[in-house]
Amino acid sequence: MSTETSSKIQTRHVSRNAYLYVRQSTLRQVFENTESTKRQYALQQRAIALGWSIEQVVIIDSDLGRSGASAVDREGFQRLVTEVGLGRAGIVMGLEVSRLARNSTDWHRLLEICALADTLILDEDGVYDPAHFNDRLLLGLKGTMSEAELHVLRARLRGGILNKARRGELEVRMPIGFVHDSQGRVQLDPDLRIQDSVRQLLRTFERTGSATATVKAFREQGLLFPRHAIKGPRHGEILWSELTHSRTLFVLHNPTYAGAFTFGRTRQRTRPDGSTINKHLPQSEWTTLIRDAHEGYLSWEQYEQNLQRLRDNAKSYGEERERGAPREGPALLQGLAICAICSTRMTVRYHHCAGQTRPTYVCQHAGIATGQPICQSIHGAADLPVDPRGWLGPGGRRPAGGDGHPHDVGARSTGSEGTRVTQRRARRDASPRGRARTLRM
Questions:
Q1: Interatomic CA distance for residues 69 and 71, integer angstroms
Q2: Catalytic one of 2, 25, 182, 316
Q3: Which of 189, 194, 328, 371 is the most exposed place for a label (fewest CB within 10 A)?
Q4: Distance CA 106, CA 381 (A)
Q5: pTM, entire model
Q6: Is 377 a catalytic site residue?
C-alpha cells in the first residue's frame, strides 16, 4: 500500500462496507470474456489487503449482461447508489470507470453522492477521494473518456452498417412473406400458403379501401394470417392467428412488399426517464431507398396508391373530429368511462342534433383491432334506467360478466367526479319515487 493510498483510507472508511460492482455489457461477454469477469471479482482481495474483512466486502453482480449506457435498467447500479447515499459504503470498487457507468450523467451523479457521503472510489489504477478536487477532476476525465470510447465504438459499427445499407447489401430481418436465400438475396417465401395470405390481404384492401374493412373481411371468412414468433420458446416459428388492424397497417405501410430496400425509416430518441421511443420519418428523410431491389407482392405505384388511400381515410376521420366537440366536450365521463363487459376504456363520439351536441360512449377497441362487433354503445342523451347499485348496460340491463362494482354505469367511471355523480343518482333512483325516473347521461 502506497503512502498516498494509506493516507486516503481512514478508520471511518474501513468501519463501513466495501462494495464491489461487477458488470459485463452483454450475455455473450459473460460467457466468452471470462478473464475480464475474473479480474473484476479479484478486486475483493484488493479490498481485504487495504483493511476490510471478507465479511465487509459486498459484491453486486446483478448487472452482468447489461449495458452501462444508462442506469434505468441496472438494478445493481441503482442499489449501489442507494447504499452510498445511505452512508453504508466506505469504498466503491470497479475494475475501471466503464464498469460503473458509460454515461456522464450517471457517473457524475455517483461522484457527487460519494463526495457528500465521504465514500472512496477504487479502480485498477488506484484509490480516489471524490471530495478532493484533483481526484474528482481525474475521475471526471476518466468518465468522459469512457463515454467517448462508447461513442467511437458505436460510430465505427454504425458506419459499417450504413455503408452496406447504402449499397442495399445489409441483411435485415424480413417481414412475413420474404426470406433470404443461401447467398443472402431476398426472395418470396417458398410457402405458397404464406404468399396467398399476403396477396389476399392486399387484394381485400384494394377492394374495400379500408384497413378495418380488411380485418373484418378476414374475420368473416375465417381466414388466419401468419406472423413470425420473435421471442419465447417458439422463437423463429411461423404462427397463424387472426388478422389485426395493426398488422394490416404494418403490411400496407411497409415498402418491402413493393420490392424496395429501405433503411432508416425510423429514428430512436431517448426520453428523460431513459426509455426510448421510435419516430417514423417521412420518405424524404430515409437513409436508403432502392426501388425494385427484389421481387415484391405489388408495384411501387400500387404501394403509393395504398398509402394515399390510408391518408385520405385518416384525413376524413380527422375532419369529422374537427367538426365535432373538442376533447373537453360536454360528456360527463369523457376519457373516464370503462366498459363493464370487457374492462377497456370507451371512446366518445359526438353527434349534432337540433343544434345540440350529444355524446355516445362506444366500446370499440376489439372492433378496431380484430374486426369484432363493438362490445356496447351508450347514448348520452338516451333514457336508461339504473339500478340501486349504479349498474347500467345496453338497454338498461346489467351486463354479463360484471363484478358488481358500485361505480359501474354501463361503463365504470375512473374519475372522482363521475363516481360522485353516479352514486348520487343511484341513491336518488333507489328511492320509491326515483324508481320511476330515468338517467340522462
A1: 7
A2: 25
A3: 328
A4: 55
A5: 0.59
A6: no
